[in-house]
Automatic annotation (TrEMBL):
This is Phosphoacetylglucosamine mutase. Its EC number is 5.4.2.3. GO terms for biological process: carbohydrate metabolic process; UDP-N-acetylglucosamine biosynthetic process. Residues 475-545 form the Alpha-D-phosphohexomutase C-terminal domain. It comes from Apostasia shenzhenica. Belongs to the phosphohexose mutase family.
Length: 550
């Protein structure tokens, strides 16, 4: 009864705006910031209930990622640091859209009953809150706290301005009973990075490996945090631009990974003086990373190194370490076999998939959205996933990590300085450098730098791993995007009937062509992707398929 009145009273303070229907999509709730108060209050309730249900700490992150500065949004992180379980999304959506405080209370009580949640149990329940640098973030965070506190027995803990991956990392660590402050994050990253750099084969650092790296921070939280972390790194020459300094540049405006990847142009603040240098770009909440190089041919365009190529670099490195770990082992019982899986989406450039398969790797596909990729990657001893847009990470299973630890001890005692020992140490360092909760631009960047040094590679070497097939992406505004239903990791259209046949017929007109459509999870549009052996073919295929969608 007390719970009921607390909820009614606080919900009344945050009425839902008229004519706004929200869906908990791949990116959580996202909208223009001024419309989000009631949503953020309710997200607080959802997170609090999630914490009660799981008996663990969960996370609530306030960000709209690469979207314009006027937008904002919220995502909930589960105890293991991954996205909130999909089974809760319908409830989240219903709650966000409940029109009156009475409806809200009814929904909560009904759901709590169904889920067997007890209010104010003995187990302490806690929600970690974080926000990006958006000016609306602070007020919205306060509103979310109200929502959390409206559930008796749950406490909010404000982590302040953090990257999305930092918050997910903190949740994950906290539930493992480990130190989970920002400083712990910085220490873990800098130490594992140092360990990888120390094990760069002799000679490579002494060759002319160019340590210079310029990073575009998208005028957001990532650049700011990298500036701090940089102080703990040795032997790395990182220059951060668009680092979110007061009055200098707007978040995500002609800067950031999304802009660079989609437009294939240099972000603001980069110019002719940077030709030939290795550059990287984060998105607004630093969960996406792409690399690029200012084109020598056309100063306005860039040679892009996208998520697919980052994935390929990581895959090559991991495969090599696994090989090194097991080569030269005479007694089979000392070998450590590992399942290595590569997870991509239909947006992965076909040339990257071909390359990975040529390496003999197992490549699987899931629908777009981190929750799908992450889940799939977690099925392997080592699972590497990336979206072409630069979101991805490498997951190590607990079981594999403990075996690796044993091997390390064994080799350290029996064959110090050997290749298998080094491979063990490198893999262990990678597992603590790379974020195990979610894709993380900062830790991804450090791993890229370490691997490039290990290989002694320039950006040019990296770019030449394979050559992207020309592609084109278009979007078509439609009245109802839910009318399009896809299957087979979004590569086939089930509804409307006949549309897939039309796409097949168009695709058959071109050599090595591929085309798919899918409803966006974040915008009211249908997206079209086409790939072919030359640009005009990709363009015209995308164009003609768009007309069928319309
Ligand atoms: C969200 C997803 C991202 C995906 C993008 C696609 C998460 C955390 N983020 O940003 O993975 O690439 O949506 O957007 O899952 P779209 O559905 O509008 O194409
Ligand atoms: Zn993001």
């Amino acid at each position: 009864e007390e719970q009921r009145s607390v909820l009614l009273e606080s919900a009344a303070q945050f009425p839902v705006p008229h004519g706004v229907t929200l869906s908990y999509g791949t990116a959580g709730f996202r909208a223009e910031a001024s419309k989000l108060s009631s949503t953020l209050f309710r997200a607080g309730i959802i997170a609090a209930l999630r914490s009660l249900k799981t008996g663990c700490t969960v996370g609530l992150m306030i960000t709209a990622s690469h979207n314009p500065v006027g937008d904002n949004g919220v995502k909930i992180a589960d105890p293991d640091g991954s996205m909130m379980a999909q089974s809760w999304e319908p409830f989240a959506e219903a709650l966000a859209n409940a029109e009156t405080p009475e409806c809200l209370v009814e929904l909560v009580f009904q759901f709590v009953k169904e889920e067997g949640i007890t209010f104010g149990g003995e187990r302490p329940a806690e929600v970690l809150l974080g926000r990006d640098t958006r000016p609306t973030g602070e007020a919205l965070l306060e509103v979310s706290k109200q929502g959390i506190k409206a559930i008796i027995g749950v406490v909010p803990l404000d982590m302040g301005i953090v990257t999305t991956p930092q918050l997910h990392w903190m949740v994950w660590r906290k539930n493992k009973g480990l130190n989970a402050l920002e400083l712990d994050y910085f220490m873990q990253l800098s130490e594992s990075f140092r360990c990888l750099i120390e094990m760069v084969p002799e000679g490579i650092t002494k060759q002319n490996f160019d340590l210079r790296l310029i990073v575009d921070g998208a005028n957001g939280v990532g650049g700011m945090k990298l500036e701090q972390l940089k102080e703990l790194l040795t032997g790395q020459e990182i220059q951060v631009r668009n680092a979110c300094k007061q009055g200098l540049g707007v978040l995500n405006e002609r800067v950031g990974a999304d802009y660079v990847q989609k437009e294939k142009v240099a972000p603001c603040g980069f110019g002719p003086n940077d030709i030939g240098l290795r550059c990287a770009s984060f998105d607004g909440d630093a969960d996406r990373l792409v690399y690029f190089r200012i084109s020598r041919v056309n100063i306005n365009s860039v040679d892009l190194v996208d998520g697919d190529k980052i994935l390929s670099l990581f895959a090559l490195f991991i495969k090599e370490q696994l090989h090194m770990l097991n080569s030269g082992i005479k007694d089979l019982k000392n070998a450590l076999p590992a399942s290595l899986g590569i997870v991509q989406t239909a947006y992965a450039n076909g040339a990257s998939t071909d390359y990975l398969k040529q390496l003999g790797l197992e490549v699987v596909f899931t629908p777009t959205g981190v929750k799908y990729l992450h889940k799939k990657a977690a099925e392997y001893d080592i699972g590497i996933y990336f979206e072409a847009n630069g979101h991805g990470t490498i997951l190590f299973s607990e079981d594999f990590l403990s075996k690796l630890q044993e091997k390390k001890n064994y080799f350290a005692a029996s064959s110090a300085g050997s290749d298998p020992l080094k491979a063990c140490l490198r893999l262990l360092a990678v597992s603590s450098l790379i974020n195990q909760a979610v894709g993380d631009a900062i830790s991804g960047l450090l791993l890229v730098e370490a691997v490039l040094q290990y290989m002694g590679w320039t950006v040019q070497n990296w770019i030449e791993l394979y050559h992207d097939l020309p592609s084109r992406q278009l979007k078509v505004k439609v009245a109802d995007r839910t009318a399009v239903i896809t299957t087979d990791a979004e590569t086939q259209v089930l509804r409307p009937f006949g549309l897939q046949e039309a796409i097949d017929a168009e695709t058959a007109k071109y050599d090595r062509a591929r085309c798919f459509i899918r409803p966006s999870g974040t915008e009211d549009v249908i997206r079209v992707y086409a790939e072919a052996s030359y640009q005009e073919a990709a363009d015209s295929l995308a164009q003609s398929v768009s007309q069928h969608v319309d």
